[in-house]
Design a protein that fits this description.
This protein is of the alpha/beta class and 241 residues long. The strands form two sheets. Strands 5-4-1-6-8-7-9 form a seven-stranded mixed beta sheet, sandwiched between helices. The protein is globular, with a radius of gyration of 17 Å. It starts with a strand and ends in a 9-residue tail after the last helix.
C-alpha cells in the first residue's frame, strides 16, 4: 500500500450533474462500476471524498465494497489528496495516481502503463491526458509523493489547489512522460459531466453487453462501429481547469 496509492477524488456536489458518481449504471452506482474496472488495483485504491456532510452515500459505498476512503476539503482538493496519502502512510517511495470518479469506462491497462513508466527512476510524472489522443474519460496521472508534498506546501493559487496536478510543474523540476494513442480518438467523450454524458455512457455499456469485462481494443471497436454513440454527447463542452 505504501508503494502505490491510487487516489480517486469523489464528491456529491458536482455543479453540472449533482450526485453523478452515485447515479445508477447497470444497476450499480457509477463509482462502483469504475471500481470494478480497476478490480486488480483494489488494495491500492483510496476514495478521497469530502467532509462537507454530503458525502455519506460515497462513504457507505466504500464500507459496502471494503474500499479505503478519506474525508477532506471539498474545494481544496490538493490538501485532500495530500492528507489522504499521509493518512495511508505514503512515504518517499510512494507512487500516487490521480483519477477522477466520473470515468466509469477507465481502462486498467492504461493505468498499469502509467504505473510501469513511473517505475523508471528518471521520470517524475506520467500522464494519459486530454491531449493524449485517447477518448476523454480514460485520463490518469501518476507522480511521486514528494511532488505532491512539495506542491501542497508551496501552492497558494486557488486553481492550483483545486486541480491537484495543475501547479506541480511550477514548484518542482519534473521530467514528464505523456502517453499517446496510436490514433486520435479524442472526439469520443466517455467522461460524466452532464446529462447527455450519462446517456452516452449508459449506451456504451449497453453496446458492451452491460459488462465491465472488456479491453481497450474492444471499447474502441464498439465506439467506431456505432457512430450513434458519439452523437449522443458530442455537443457537451469540456469544463476547463
Amino acid at each position: 500500500m505504501q508503494d502505490l496509492q491510487i487516489i480517486i477524488q469523489a464528491r456529491m456536489t458536482s455543479s453540472r450533474l449533482p450526485g453523478k458518481v452515485m447515479l445508477p449504471l447497470m444497476g450499480k452506482p457509477v463509482l462502483e462500476v469504475m471500481l470494478e474496472r480497476l478490480q486488480n488495483f483494489k488494495d491500492s485504491i483510496i476514495i478521497a471524498t469530502t467532509d462537507d456532510g454530503t458525502e455519506q452515500p460515497i462513504v457507505e459505498l466504500c464500507h459496502k465494497l471494503e474500499v479505503k476512503y478519506f474525508n477532506g476539503s471539498t474545494e481544496n482538493v490538493l490538501s485532500r489528496y495530500y492528507n489522504a496519502a499521509v493518512n495511508y502512510k505514503a512515504n518517499s517511495r510512494t507512487k500516487i495516481l490521480r483519477l477522477t470518479s466520473d470515468c466509469p469506462l477507465i481502462d486498467e491497462t492504461l493505468v498499469r502503463k502509467v504505473v510501469d513508466n513511473l517505475d523508471c527512476s528518471h521520470i517524475d510524472m506520467v500522464s494519459v491526458g486530454p491531449h493524449s489522443g485517447f477518448p476523454r474519460g480514460l485520463d490518469c496521472c501518476g507522480f511521486r509523493f514528494k511532488t505532491l508534498e512539495t506542491t501542497h506546501k508551496l501552492a497558494t493559487n486557488i486553481a492550483d489547489r483545486e486541480h491537484v496536478t495543475l501547479g506541480m510543474p511550477k514548484y518542482s523540476n519534473l521530467t514528464t512522460l505523456n502517453l499517446a494513442a496510436e490514433e486520435d480518438l479524442s472526439h469520443f467523450r466517455l467522461t460524466l459531466d452532464e446529462p447527455d454524458d450519462y446517456l452516452a455512457i449508459k449506451a456504451v455499456y449497453q453496446a458492451l453487453g452491460n459488462s465491465t469485462d472488456f479491453s481497450l481494443d474492444e471499447l474502441i471497436r464498439i465506439l467506431k462501429n456505432n457512430p450513434n454513440l458519439y452523437e449522443i454527447n458530442k455537443n457537451v463542452q469540456q469544463k476547463n481547469a
